[in-house]
Write a structure and sequence with these properties.
Layout lengths: L1 E2 L3 E5 L5 H7 L16 H13 L6 E10 L4 E11 L2 E8 L8 H13 L6 E6 L4 H9 L3 E7 L2 E7 L2
Parallel strand pairs: 5-6
Antiparallel strand pairs: 1-2, 2-3, 3-4, 4-5, 6-8, 7-8
């Protein structure tokens, strides 16, 4: 578990799927990433795969749900995929909890934790029009680069 001022980042469990399906149900969350919200059953299947871990021993999948302590409920997710001492991170916060600094706080907590691990660089890929995600990345100390990956801007932060 990773704790911040208002949040607990709890290691993902399959049992989180039902509550998270509600948190992530807004189709607007997929504006920049594509796809559609998962049904509770589909999210449970996805979480089973994520919890099982990467099939590649060279890659580590780390996933947390974001618990907003004062409300006693889950409000989003953060994740890190680590390979070759590079952590690629991502985050999503349910629509009702956006605009409250939760994603930034969670991302800063995650990056702080990653700095204690054998990771030398943190990377995020963000759609160029997704200004809120760019602000989250910047708040976690990542800087935009000139590199693009599948049309998204590569943001990164060296840790060592």
């Amino acid at each position: 578990m990773i704790s911040t001022d208002r949040l607990d980042l709890l290691p993902l469990r399959v049992e989180h799927a039902a509550e998270m399906a509600e948190v992530l149900a807004d189709p607007a969350l997929h504006t920049f990433i594509g796809g559609a919200p998962y049904t509770p059953e589909a999210l449970r299947t996805r979480y089973e795969r994520l919890v099982a871990g990467s099939p590649s021993p060279a890659e580590q999948w780390l996933n947390w749900v974001i618990s907003l302590r004062d409300e006693g409920r889950l409000v989003g997710t953060v994740q890190a995929t680590i390979a070759d001492q590079v952590a690629e991170i991502a985050w999503v916060v349910g629509t009702p909890w956006q605009g409250r600094g939760i994603a930034g706080e969670a991302a800063r907590g995650l990056v702080g934790w990653l700095a204690t691990q054998p990771v030398h660089t943190v990377v995020a890929h963000i759609h160029p029009d997704h200004h809120a995600s760019a602000a989250v990345a910047a708040s976690a100390g990542l800087a935009a680069t000139d590199e693009r990956h599948d049309g998204e801007v590569r943001w990164q932060r060296p840790l060592q």
